[in-house]
Amino acid sequence: MTYKTGLLNFKTMTDFFSNNYTDLEDTKLVQLSIDGNKKALQTLIIRHQLFVYNLALKMVGNVEDAEDLTQEVFIKIITALSKFEGKSKFRTWLYRITVNHFLNNKKKKSKIKTVNFETYFNSIYAIPSIDLNDQEEKEFKDTIEEIRINCTTGMLLCLSKEQRIIYILGEMFDIDHNLGAEILGITPGNFRIKLMRTRKELYNWMNKKCGLVNTNNPCRCSKKQEVI
User: Fold this and answer.
1) Which of 24, 61, 109, 217 could form a disulfide with 211 if both were Cys (CB 3.0 to 4.6 A apart)?
2) E strand or H helix at 82, and its extent?
3) 56 and 142 within one domain
4) Going residue by residue through the chain (228 aa), what tens digit of pLDDT does each one get?
């Protein structure tokens, strides 16, 4: 199983997370897959692969680990497929297995090592700043954007696994609180509270340290060429 891109197709995500999403196609594919139809199984995996992989990528911060986690999830799904009883939408069943696997994952191979926000931002501040002129910023536009993404990934890794999952689902994927709660097995009110607290914690740290959020902070992505 290969994954050619880590970019998130937000239109596809919106389709899956909207109230208009129907589980009928999944239900047909599940039954065909259980009956041994390999093409149906492949189609079923492709329908949900983007979500699982992008969630994994944002959880662990690097492609290799994300691919491993995605592979592990679909092995679990395929193995347990005959046990799906149709009491909930297949999408919810699959995503709950995905989230539980990520929360219980014990691997510590991630290339970005962080302990907490204080340690992380101190490590960023320790990197020498390089001033670029306007022309250089244009030339290094892609590199600067990559630095921004890497830095954001590092901040996400400072959150607990549960906070990370909730923030990615609620803030980055913009899913409905009811669906998020169903996936995590908690109440919608609890999901909203946890998301609100995570947003606040992340914002407070960025407001104190990050120049993108607070222009009074000296840290700028364009000055941290060594982050990559």
Assistant:
1) 217
2) none
3) no
4) 444 333 344 444 545 555 555 678 888 999 999 999 999 999 999 989 999 999 998 888 888 888 999 999 999 999 999 888 877 889 889 999 999 998 887 665 444 455 688 887 777 777 766 666 667 666 656 666 666 777 777 788 888 889 999 999 999 888 889 989 988 989 999 999 999 999 999 888 888 877 777 788 777 666 555 544
Block residue for tokens 């909207």: 18
Query: What single-letter amino acid sits at 161?
Result: K
Question: Burial, 122: exposed, middle or buried (Cβ in 10 Å; 0-12, 13-18, 19+)?
Answer: exposed
Look-up: residue for tokens 């990197």? 127
Structure tokens of 12?
């596809």
Neighbours of 21 (CB within 10 A): 14
Q: Percent helix, strand and coil across the chain, each rounded to 5?
A: 70, 0, 30
Domain end position, chosen among 76, 104, 132: 104
Contacts within 8 Å (CB) and 24+ apart, 172-175? 172/8, 172/58, 173/8, 173/13, 173/17, 173/51, 173/55, 174/13, 174/14, 174/17, 175/17
**Among 104, 138, 153, which residue terminates a domain?**
104
Number of domains composing the chain: 2
Rounded-to-10 torsion of CA 98, 31, 78, 17: -20
> pLDDT per residue over 32-56, tens digit each?
999 999 999 999 999 899 999 999 9
Contacts of 128 (CB under 8 A, 6+ apart): 226
